[in-house]
Automatic annotation (TrEMBL):
SUPFAM superfamilies: NAD(P)-binding Rossmann-fold domains. It comes from Micromonospora harpali. This is SDR family NAD(P)-dependent oxidoreductase. It holds the Pfam family adh_short_C2. InterPro entries: NAD(P)-bd_dom_sf, SDR_fam. GO terms for molecular function: oxidoreductase activity. Residues 247-266 are annotated as: Disordered. The lineage of its organism: Bacteria, Bacillati, Actinomycetota, Actinomycetes, Micromonosporales.
């Protein structure tokens, strides 16, 4: 197989659907062997079968450190190496702050932060063995601002940025790069039924999984060989517009609404 990632092995968590499935498809198309790791057995298995050669599904709950060790060992046995990890699996909980239960808060942190920590810890020794690798953590534009009703999710995504930089510093000497990709509003099963707001988005549309996958592909490949500890925002210019919300007056001269779209006078 030719392709930029030919001969390399990539693990994609949450790869059964949404952004993770888009990433798995893109890495596979670039020549990589792809291990789709997810709790969603039916969808993950279906995607691996559809991709065919150089793809397999493994059941993995990213919160389980023991399961992580088994997945990495299995990949090493089957393919001899692990070069890329995309820490993409994530969950959200929607609730007003006062009603955000400790249980829901912890669950979001367990998947979105501890899941990434376990993944990095599990793949680092395998990557060291082959002289390096690339780890890509999926954050969110919610790692640069806040949204109401998502306290646990926002907290977890800000943590992704800290974890990314701390791990990049420690693993750089082993040739292991650690970066974060931060999607904006993206059409996936997670956002099914969401009321997307693109009025302030520079490119005037929401993202598709393939849009996010393009950035992941860049960070997985050699074109980004000198990039580590970085935050790559992939949002069509959502944050660029959102940063101005508070200071843009609406038509009545009042401050703009930070949570809605801003109506600029013609
Ligand atoms: N869709 C968006 O608009 C958007 C925006 C910003 C960031 N993100 C982030 O992108 C990532 C993917 O989001 P998505 O929209 O594709 O979500 P999704 O819900 O469509 O897919 C998430 C996948 O993760 C898997 N998963 C959940 N918990 C898991 C666990 N404990 N172990 C293993 N797998 C698990 C699910 O089974 C699912 O296949 C998440 O980290 C999310 O926070 C999404």
């Amino acid at each position: 197989m030719s392709g930029e990632l030919a001969g390399r092995t990539a693990i994609v968590t949450g790869g059964a659907q949404g952004i993770g499935a888009g990433v798995a498809r893109a890495l596979h198309a670039a020549g990589a062997t792809v291990v789709i790791a997810d709790v969603h057995v039916a969808e993950g298995g279906k995607l691996a079968t559809a991709l065919g050669e150089r793809a397999r599904f493994v059941e993995l709950d990213v919160r389980d450190a023991g399961a992580w060790s088994r997945v990495v060992a299995q990949a090493q046995r089957a393919y001899g190496r692990v070069d890329v990890l995309v820490n993409n699996a994530g969950v959200a909980a929607i609730a007003p702050f006062a009603e955000h239960s400790e249980e829901a808060f912890r669950r979001v942190l367990d998947v979105n932060v501890m899941g990434l920590f376990h993944g990095i810890a599990a793949v680092a020794p395998a990557m060291r063995q082959v002289g390096g690798g690339s780890i890509i953590n999926v954050g969110s534009i919610g790692a640069f601002r806040a949204y109401p009703l998502m306290t646990g999710y926002i907290t977890s995504k800000w943590a992704v940025r800290g974890l990314t930089r701390a791990a990049a510093l420690e693993l750089g000497a082993d040739g292991i790069r650690v970066n974060a990709v931060h999607p904006g509003q993206t059409e996936t099963p997670l956002t099914d039924g969401a009321d997307f707001d693109t009025a302030h988005v520079a490119l005037k549309r929401v993202g598709q999984p393939a849009d996010i996958a393009g950035a992941v592909l860049f960070l997985a490949g050699d074109g980004s060989r000198f990039v580590t500890g970085a935050d790559l925002v992939v949002d069509g210019g959502d944050l660029a517009g959102a940063a101005n919300w508070a200071s843009v007056p609406d038509q009545n001269g009042e401050e703009g609404d930070r949570h809605g779209s801003v109506q600029l006078a013609a």
